[in-house]
Amino acid sequence: MGFDKKLENLAVKLFEINAVKFGEFVMKSGLTTPVYFDLRVIVSYPEVLDLISSLLYEFSVKSSSCDHLCGVPYTALPIATLLSVLAKKPMLMRRKEAKAYGTKKLIEGHFKAGQTVLIVEDVVTSGGSVLETVNDIRKEGLVAEEAVVIVDRQQGGVKNLEANNVHVKSLFTISSLLEIFVKHGKVTKETAEKVKEYLKNNQAVKEPTVADAPVDRTKLTYEKREKLANNPIAKKLFNIMATKKSNLCLSVDLTSTSKILDLLTRVGEHICLVKTHVDIIEDFSESFVTQLKQLADRFGFLILEDRKFADIGNTVSLQYSKGLYKIGDWADCVTVHSLPGEGVLKAISASVNGVSKGVFLLAEMSSEGNLITPDYIEQTVKVAAKYPELMTGFVCQNKKTFSDPGLIQLTPGVQLQSSGDGLGQVYNTPEKIILENGADIAVVGRGIVAAKNPEAQVVIYRDALWKAYAERVGAK
Ligand code: 5BU
């Protein structure tokens, strides 16, 4: 097989083992990237390690007159090891930190000043990591003027290294990878264009390091996420969930205030959030609101009014704070459609005016045949990022809809008894929505409200949801 064919095979393999991913990744640094490399995973695939090292050998090491090879810690270490064996050339190891005791050497291995070193690296973005290794090597009197890398992210790193007298050869650039991925139907042309556009606008950014790796929010505990939340209601909710061991939101879709208050008196201790539709109540009064808030205080749950605001900003700010219901006075958080655009969030932000309130933005719906498209979802998540103080989370159905661990995924459409209601509602089980769909809080309505014995049902749902969450974060 020719070199180019092998290169193509390797690219496809890297895609298949998730060493390269496309989407929207929020780094711990807060920056986002549409493409993320995680070549650490290659240690689990000996055939990929073999392919990478043989290609790097053919491509660069074979023709290099270097005396030593040195991998940039940590991902490139196994590759440098394999290359050293293939080329029969000794390897040097650079420590990330000098040992606190003993020799305090930065570079391990036997060498003489003046000898040359070929640096091996997995991904180059700004070139910063390669330079750190180069500098430590140069401090020992060694010559480091050549580097070989698997992927050049084309964000200025190669130029930066050349400026520091390090000549770089890369097996792939993002462009060459994209070409192969498009050819093999792994990514669409649109995605490829989006990535190229991103690269054009993001030159010489900080190299995403292991510490910057995108976090899988669903693997983090609610306690950890409380610390990562910006919105005060999200913080409170994470805290309540962790303390009460409940990720259950009860949707009290009842039309009389006495029935709602009576039900909450019986089940309030088991829920973290109550969700209301205040406009279906036939005897709404201020005293209802007072009693609802008393129950929320007594049992320690928050109140979400599922108003689904969807008008222009000015109207929404009136609907939020005025009229019969004065929602903004008593609801800790509300649901909002992103359909009208940013104005809705701006309006609520202004109405809230520094008081601890929150918004769950609708990114997806549980009903069959709803008209929300992937682009709508993407734009919804983008607009939300502009209002970190206001955003409690998203109402959505999928783990991949957003990645910010400080936001909460609220997912309706949960029931044990049936898979639909004949009017378009689609139900999933507690296990599925927590473990597969990534929900942080599950909304259950009729599964509890319409049950013969709501007190018994609420415990069944709470326990099933909590058990699934504990399994998800690896807690016992
Ligand atoms: P159910 O009885 O569990 O089907 O009630 C679900 C509640 O969640 C109900 O109040 C809906 O208005 C609400 N809901 C939903 O079911 N699906 C959605 O996508 C959204 C809200 Br958004």
Automatic annotation (TrEMBL):
InterPro entries (alphabetical): Aldolase_TIM (IPR013785), OMPdecase (IPR014732), OMPdecase_AS (IPR018089), OMPdeCOase_dom (IPR001754), OPRT (IPR023031), Or_phspho_trans_dom (IPR004467), PRTase-like (IPR029057), PRTase_dom (IPR000836)
Gene3D superfamilies reported in the protein's UniProt record: 3.40.50.2020, Aldolase class I
Highest taxon, organism lineage: Eukaryota
Enzyme Commission number(s): 2.4.2.10, 4.1.1.23
Pathway(s) where this gene product acts: Pyrimidine metabolism; UMP biosynthesis via de novo pathway; UMP from orotate: step 2/2; Pyrimidine metabolism; UMP biosynthesis via de novo pathway; UMP from orotate: step 1/2
Orotidine 5'-phosphate decarboxylase domain: residues covered: 247-461
Annotated keywords: Decarboxylase, Glycosyltransferase, Lyase, Multifunctional enzyme, Pyrimidine biosynthesis, Transferase
SUPFAM superfamilies per UniProt: PRTase-like (SSF53271), Ribulose-phoshate binding barrel (SSF51366)
SMART domains: OMPdecase (SM00934)
Family named by the database record: In the N-terminal section; belongs to the purine/pyrimidine phosphoribosyltransferase family. In the C-terminal section; belongs to the OMP decarboxylase family.
NCBIfam families for the chain: pyrE (TIGR00336), pyrF (TIGR01740)
Name under which the protein is recorded: Uridine 5'-monophosphate synthase
